[in-house]
Amino acid sequence: DEAVIFMKPASALAQGSRLRYPSHGADLHHEAEIVVRVARDGVPVSDDDAATLVGELALGLDMTLRDVQSRLKKAGLPWEKAKAFDDSAAVGPFIAADGIDLADISLQLAVNGQLRQAGSSAMMLRPIPQLLREVAAIWPLQKGDLIFTGTPAGVAAVGVGDRLTLSSPQLPGATWQIVDRP
């Protein structure tokens, strides 16, 4: 019943179109997501109020080291080592959220030209405004915060050389390539 919420440091935000394969794991997975950039500081009290905090939207990738995550889960430990490494948060170009129906944003992810994930915000476990309210109940939202909203089915492993392309009728697309470990 509760959303799984975790944080990533600023260093997790990828710079450019190359995502470095991390050196502390061996099973890197993609998770295609809609990303919200918060427009202003606030703690929404309703879904309508939360929707006013959505300033811009983009497509993004939440990269996860599944082998590390599995080990941490079994030990009852936090997941940051599996989800908060350099280049684990890739974000495409943002556009203003004005006029975009938050309840009906489609997204697709292709890896090397093969469709891996396809979904819509209409299929999400939590509508975007509800997710923002749940996050803000713990941490007040601040202007510029990035909220990754969850991933559709189809999460899978990627390797060095793979090209990941996100697309949407509503949001600008983006492409990244996995490169060798640092």
Could you provide a short overview of the structure?
Helices cover 15% and strands 32% of the residues. By secondary structure, it is α+β, with helices and mostly antiparallel strands.
Description:
It contains four helices and 13 strands. The protein is of the alpha+beta class and 182 residues long. The protein has a single domain, classed as Fumarylacetoacetase-like, C-terminal domain (Fumarylacetoacetate hydrolase, domain 2, Alpha-Beta Complex). Strand 12 (163-167) and strand 13 (174-179) form a beta hairpin.
Topology:
Blueprint: E1 18-20, E2 28-30, E3 32-38, H1 47-51, E4 54-62, E5 64-65, H2 66-74, H3 80-83, E6 89-91, E7 95-96, E8 106-111, E9 114-120, H4 128-136, E10 146-148, E11 156-157, E12 163-167, E13 174-179
Parallel strand pairs: 1-13
Antiparallel strand pairs: 2-5, 2-11, 3-4, 3-10, 4-6, 4-7, 8-9, 8-12, 12-13
**Helix/sheet category:** alpha+beta
How confident is the prediction overall: mean pLDDT? 96
Strand content: 25-35%
How many strands in all?
13
How can the largest sheet be summarized? 5 strands, mixed
Segments where pLDDT lies below 50 for 5+ residues? Answer: none
- The H-level CATH homologous superfamily, spelled out, is Fumarylacetoacetase-like, C-terminal domain
- What is the CATH C-level name? Alpha Beta
- Number of separate domains: 1
Estimate percent helicity. Answer: 10-25%
Pfam families: FAA_hydrolase
Protein name: oxaloacetate tautomerase
Family: Belongs to the FAH family.
Domain Fumarylacetoacetase-like C-terminal: 3-171
